[in-house]
Amino acid sequence: MFKFQHLIKENMAELSKNITLEQGKTLVDAEGDVIRGLQIVEHACSVTSLQMGETMPSVSKDMDTYSIRVPLGVLCRDYSLLTFPAMIPLWMFPLANVTGNTYVLKPSERDPGA
After folding, report:
1. DSSP label at 50?
2. Mind listing the pLDDT tens digit for each residue in 21-58?
3. Whole-prediction pTM
4. Cβ atoms within 10 A of the Cβ of 35, count?
5. Cα(105)–Cα(91) distance, rounded to whole angstroms?
6. 74-80 and 102-107 beta bridge pairing
7. What's the farthest any 2 CA atoms get from each other in the chain?
């Protein structure tokens, strides 16, 4: 996920330019689209430590409780919208990936870059 984060930062100008050319967004809007998605990728880099579950020893006499977090499987199928071609997939993909789930992306056939 850190490599993915690095690639987005490294290619932010090119990604924004492509969104502008394909979607007709202003460059500022396209940059905002990529930046919002990058924020979720950065959060996803720290999510794995939050997935360890919880332990509550000695809840009652001779009783401990604990939770285990496990992958769900296919987390989301994303029919990507023309209005947010980078931000919406970047909201879903990184979190699905770091939690061990499958993410399916199907861009709209009307999307010029699909």
Report:
1. G
2. 888 889 999 999 999 989 989 988 887 777 776 777 77
3. 0.67
4. 16
5. 12
6. parallel
7. 65
